[in-house]
Amino acid sequence: MRELRQDGEPFDLAVAGESGGTDPGRADVHTEHAQAGATWWMEAIHPWRTDLPEALPWPVAARSLIGGGP
């Protein structure tokens, strides 16, 4: 990125992915990306995720993942 950018101004680097809503190492995934220079993590929230609670309707299950935080 340094070679491609003309100015020395800071910039954001966003990473999209799934980090496992019930995985106790979830925060480690975010920390590793932050240490590599990512400034944003965009969690993929979609109805075909396999780690969401099956007993809940999709929007409610997605909220449980979002509420879990980074």
Can you characterise this structure?
There is one protein chain. By secondary structure, this protein is of the alpha+beta class. The protein has one domain. 29% of the residues lie in helices and 11% in strands. The chain is built from two helices and two strands; from the N terminus they run βαβα. A two-stranded parallel sheet has the order 1-2. The longest helix has 10 residues. The model has no long low-confidence stretch (mean pLDDT 81).
Provide a concise account of the structure shown.
With 70 residues, the protein is α+β, with helices and mostly antiparallel strands. The chain is 29% helix and 11% strand. It has one domain (14-67).
Keywords, separated by commas or semicolons:
alpha+beta; 70 residues; two-stranded parallel sheet; 29% helix
Q: What percent of residues adopt helix (DSSP H or I)?
A: 25-40%
Reading the helices and strands in chain order gives: EHEH
Q: Percent of residues in beta strands?
A: 5-15%
Distance between the termini: 26 Å
Mean pLDDT: 81
Strand order of the largest sheet: 1-2
The helix count comes to 2
What's the alpha carbon Rg, rounded to whole Å?
15 Å
Unreliable stretches covering 5 or more consecutive residues: none
Shape: elongated
